[in-house]
Every structure is written in structure tokens, then in C-alpha cells.
Amino acid sequence: MNRVGYQLSFMMFLQFFIWGSWFVTLGTFLASNLTASGAQIGMAFATQSWGAIIAPFVIGLIADRYFNAEKILGVLHLGGAALLFQMHNSTEFATFYPFVLGYMVLYMPTLALVNSVAFRQMSDPAKEFSKIRVWGTVGWIVAGLMISYMFSWDSRASIEQGLLRNTFLLSSCAAFILGVFSFILPATAPIAKGKEKLSLGEIVGADAFRLLKDRNFAVFFISSILICIPLAFYYQNANPFLAEIGVANPTGKMTLGQISEVGFMLLLPAFLHRFGIRITLLFGMLAWVIRYLMFAFGDAGDLAFTLIVGIALHGICYDFFFVTGQIYTNSQAGQRFQSSAQGMITLATYGLGMLIGFSVAGYITDSFAAGATHNWQSIWLFPAGFAGVVAAIFLLAFKRQAVSSQQIGEP
Asked: Check: CATH 1.20.1250.20 for 202-411?
């Protein structure tokens, strides 16, 4: 790997180290240290969706037209570092929420910016990108291991002492480093010129909505939105659930999900070749059902292994549905609408789908709360059943469809 490769790898490592440093434990922090309700926790997590909705405008109107991507990346992360520090200092939800909302509006566009910086420096992105992007997953894993095993901030005693808020300080320091480092990344000039007209439809990927005329794609599109509701339950409730029932080092154990994500990513092409798009997507949805059933009936004692298996299923849950969905979208869009179609799916899932999901998760969590404890079995049975219904509808409505080997090789 050359010098630029090391720079891009370090960029990816910090990009996802920042997110993994605070997002996994956010629900636990809000419930334990800011006495937030389930609805309020859902509001905090939904800031990710608002950021995802706003991100295309930042990229389409600014990054692609006026300024170098690496410079915008630096400015956004430096601003984010300041907001993370304010999140660390917040003592009540009312003051915390504006900071987390502002932060996610700044952070979500950086996910596309790091990809832009990386792709523009590669001669063969299909072969080179995965070797760079994997360091992002490593960064997320390292963040979780540090929180659990180096600092023990997610232990019951540390949570009671308020030490879990240090995750925001850790993330703020990493964001500051990446903000400064971004200015020495390879120059990534805008491709489009500011004077060129750009329609609102082009920014949000509206041109790709014509794909919905195809029945299979319409079924997939609706299923993608609906399956984000169970996904929101995992992001919002998994860490608080594990901490509340007494699982040791919950944040560290949750990194098994990212480790499995890497492993199943390697298996995905072979699975697609063997079973096709329809069955692969179905496996991804059914994995959510199995995961939540394991959470519902597992415990921190003799059945702790079911919780570990449930966490490890993240690779199938995410790769087999969401990554496969990106491949399927790419295959249906054609070269002209590929970018628009991916933007449309991102807006539908991380925007609309997750926004609905976090609201539903907050309501269900509050419905089964009893003071500081929860009826977790009832909470987890809801997304298990919901995912099962979505999978059944998908199975009946989505007809078999082939995808070429070349398309499978372009996740």
C-alpha cells in the first residue's frame, strides 16, 4: 500500500471510530444519565435520519460544485468535534438534543465525502475500495473494545458514576484529529461547476423513482422502508437491553456484529450466485426475526449464548439485505441512474424508514417500561413479528429475478 492508501485507510478508521465511540451506547447514556424516556431516546436516534435526509443537499449543492471534498470534510468534522464536546457537557435531554441534532446534520454528509475522497484517488475502485473501507469497520470495532475493555465505561458501576458520558469526549477528540488530518488528504476538486444548473430532483435522486414502475423493485423498495423499523429497535435498544439485564462489557460484545459483517460480506457473492437475489434478501429479513427471538428469550445467565448469537447475526441481517439491496438497485438502475437510485434508496431507508422506526421503537419501549426496568421480552417480540410479516409479504410479492455475475461483483 502506498502513502495515499495509508492516508485513506486512516481516514476511514477515524470516520467510523468517531461514530462507534458514542452511537452504540447512546440509548444507555440517555436512559441512565439523562433519565430520558423511550420516546426521547427515539428522537435522539432519529437525528441520524434527519442527517441522512439533509446530506444529499450538502453533497449535491456544495461538495460536488464549489469546494474540495477533503476541505469540506475537515470543516464538518471540526464543527462536529465542538458539538460532541457540548454533548459531553449536557446534563439534561433538553440541552442535549439540539447538539446531537446539529451533530448528525454535520456528520451524515461526511459518510459520502470520505467515499468521494477515496474513489477519486483510485485507479481501480472495484479492487481497491474494499481494502480501504474495511478499516472503517475496524475503527468501529476498536471503539467498542476500548469503551468496554480498556475504560469499562459501560459497566454498571461506571454508568452510575456518569462515566459513560466520556464516550462523547473520546469521539470529540477523534473528530478533531480527523478534521485537522482532512486538510492534508489528497486534493479532491469538485467535478461539477457552480454555474451549471442542478434540479432538486437530481439532488434527491427523483429520476430513479421511475424504477418503481417495475413490480419487483416496488416490492423491494417498500420492504426496505418497512424492515428499517426492526433495524431501529436494534440501534436504539440493544445496548440498554444488554446493560440492564447485567451482561458484562455489552459494548465490547456488540462489536461481534461488525466482525460478522466482515465475514458475511466475503460469503455474500457466493450466496448470491447460489441462491439469487430473492432468497438472499429473504434470508436477510428472516435473520432479523431469529435475532429478536433470541433477544426475547435469552438472558445473562445460562442462555447468554443466545444473546451472543443474536448479536453475531448482524452480518446476515445487514449484508444479506442492505448490501444485497444496493447490488440489486445497481443492477436495475443501469448506468444512467445508478447514483440517483442509490441516493433514493438511502433516503428511503436511513431517512424515512429509520425515522419511522425510531418513533415506533420509542413508543413500544415506553409501553413496556416499569420505572428504570423494562419488559424486554415483549419489546423484542414486536420487531420479531413485524420483520416476519415483512418477510412473508416479500416472499409472496417478489418474483424470482436473475442478476449477472458482473453485477454481483459490484457491491
From this structure: yes
